[in-house]
Amino acid sequence: MLKLCGFHISNYFNKARIVLLEKGIEHQTDAGCRPSQDAAFLARTPMGKVPFLETDGGTLVESDVICEYLEDAYPQKPLLPRDPLARARVRELIQILELHLELVVRRLYPFVFFGQPPDEAVKASVEKALPRGLRALQSRAKFAPYIAGAELTLADCAAYVHLPLVSLSTKLAYGRDALEDWPRVKPYLKMLGERPAFRQVSDDRKAAQAAMAKK
Predict the structure, then answer these.
(1) Share of the chain above pLDDT 90, in %
(2) CA–CA distance from 147 to each of 15, 90, 177, 181, 190 (Å)?
(3) Is residue 65 located within the same domain as residue 99?
(4) What is the mean pLDDT of residues 63-74?
(5) In angstroms, what CA-CA distances link 145 with 15, 84, 95, 114, 161?
(6) Domain interval for residue 45
(7) 64 lies in a domain?
(8) Distance of alpha carbon 48 from alpha carbon 38, whole angstroms
(9) 115 and 20 in a common domain
(10) Strands across the sheet with 27-30, in order?
(11) Assigned domain for 207 exists
(12) What is the pTM of this model?
């Protein structure tokens, strides 16, 4: 049986888990895996990163690779369109979300989420770079009702886990949500959150965060 390894507050673990649940793929989860450079862990995931997926043929790393594998191996409930250009548009949205939004604001996480002293140079750099990613996403997102159009896709699985982090981290860093002038985002995320797979992943993330806060 497939096993997804990572932890519940990881947005990339959660993206892959939503795909598994939406597609109805039988699987197990190991939510006790954290990044490590221990030799035994590196034998399972060569960069020591999570998430990774254990399969009968060995492990797969990188969330986009995992999601694409699940799409290819379990095509019964597709999360990519059949048309080649439409498929590319979904992948384009994921790249924008991850490379030009989440990866940009990730530089804020040490001081907005983990208590490190604020770095004003980092804040200024993120503030300069983020509008380009937002502009790119606005030019491609359709919200009709899903981010790529009429059907749920892998891009929605990515947007659901990344966009809230963009909102929260910029609000904490700058006192203003970078997405607040984009009124379609919140209703869109709310709609996704009403789907059972998305709701389950969200509930597990909140429970993990609450447990962490008690430590």
Answers:
(1) 98
(2) 15, 9, 20, 17, 13
(3) no
(4) 98
(5) 19, 21, 20, 35, 17
(6) 2-73
(7) yes
(8) 8
(9) no
(10) 27-30, 2-5, 52-55, 58-61
(11) yes
(12) 0.96
